[in-house]
Specification:
alpha+beta, Immunoglobulin-like, 2 domains, 1 helix, rod-shaped
């Protein structure tokens, strides 16, 4: 998964038989943490699926698997987050849009001032 995310949505864990494991999904800034109600005790491959909002606004669904074997070392966790931020292209586009908006407001104000001046000149005649 290589897209910046803006908002984690949901995550689920499935056992080797395909049953969803009960757990509490906690959203912590850019992270989804799943606290399982019962500890994992059946060896095999487990599936984790998650849904996030990408920085482009689209919902993205991803998944990964991990294997659990009895007597294996305690997992350290998996960090799947990307920092929030504007890439240089988005930053430049934002600045260009702001400059265009400022120019349009300026032109509107100048045209309005000229129209009022013309109306006053017409009324004085």
């Amino acid at each position: 998964f290589n897209l910046d995310i803006t908002k984690p949505q949901d995550a689920k864990v499935f056992d080797p038989a395909g049953n969803e494991l009960a757990g509490q999904v906690n959203r912590e800034d850019q992270r989804l943490v799943i606290a399982l109600i019962e500890p994992i005790n059946s060896p095999g491959d487990y599936l984790v699926s998650f849904v996030v909002n990408g920085i482009d606004g689209d919902l993205t669904e991803e998944s990964f698997t991990f294997a659990w074997q009895e007597g294996a070392a305690e997992p350290k966790g998996l960090m799947l987050t990307e920092p929030i931020g504007l890439d240089p292209l988005n930053y430049v586009l934002l600045l260009v849009a702001a400059a265009i908006a400022a120019f349009l407001v300026h032109r509107f104000m100048v045209a309005r001032r000229e129209q009022r001046a013309a109306q006053l000149a017409y009324q004085e005649e």
